[in-house]
Amino acid sequence: MASGLPLRPQTPASSQQLIRSDRGSMLTMSDDNVMMKQILATHAPDGREFDVKLLLQHVEDILKRATLQAQPDTSQTTSEIEAETDAQTLHFTFITMFDALSYIIDRISREIAYKALSGIDAHATTVSLFDMLESYSWDAKLVLTLAAFALKYGQFWLLAQIYSSNPLAKSMATLKQLPSILEHSGPLKPRFDALNNLIKVMMDLTKCVVEFKDLPPSYISSEVPALSTAVALIPTAVYWTIRSVVACAAQITSLTTMGHEHTISTTEAWELSTLAHKLTNILEHLRKQLATCHQHIDEKRNVEDFQMLLNLFEMIHIDNMKILKALIYAKDDMQPLLDGTSK
């Protein structure tokens, strides 16, 4: 749903915090402004649309199953089974959509992998991704990048989960040094914990950004302070989330190329925790604005419903059914009447 939000919001004061670069120096507010102006300059959406929420659901499903367990958890709850049944009805829609997006997702994945192997700094890699995604909306940039990461990250853990029982997976896993990595999973646990923590915050922030896109424009506009504040902060949220994707991908690349002997440095550990902290702060701020937006929408709808009732009471009716329906079933969720004994 198009929300009519401004395409090039200004960088808000709330995002002008001291941040650390890959080289260990502190960036000032002025440097942060320059960085965000560079990102905003790459933003040139051309109106192309796809089902962002559907793709995000698949990304979330991959990432929540990509864990350090040797065997996949095959147990399912009733809600998970029902969710899978619902997902089957959307299978054709997703396949059609993915056919259209597979090229850009693959390009993003290859760009991240190449830059990680080349040792190019995270900011430069992030900017190159924004250049590649210039035609997409902010939420679409975010979800496409997460999808590219989820494919590689999911592949890594899928091999880890099945290599011991699948000859093909075993050969592939050996090339990626997975057996050696898993044998030393104890010492590597802090690294994977840091990755999982950052990935969780990345997903939470992405879902929050996508929620703003779903706000009904008939009940709220960018003139509402809470929405205008959020709109101004979203580019910063997208930048730092994609920057976090780059950092996570670099960690996996270092493991598969250098093996378990590559010990995470203090700087790398600091980077992951700092990114998680930064994203958490942005998420908290956006959630507050989102709650205020929902409150504004509810108030507008309540006023609208009240006015509708007033209009109904002023009209002449043959019977009182319209009024009763408006009072009792204001949200058009009328349930069928059931006989308590026979149904």
UniProtKB/TrEMBL annotation:
Sieve element occlusion N-terminal domain span: 30-317
GO biological process: phloem development
Coiled coil: none
Superkingdom of the source species: Eukaryota
InterPro entries documented for this protein: SEO_N, SEOA
PANTHER family found in the cross-reference section: PROTEIN SIEVE ELEMENT OCCLUSION B, PROTEIN SIEVE ELEMENT OCCLUSION B-LIKE
Protein name: Sieve element occlusion N-terminal domain-containing protein
Protein species of origin: Dovyalis caffra
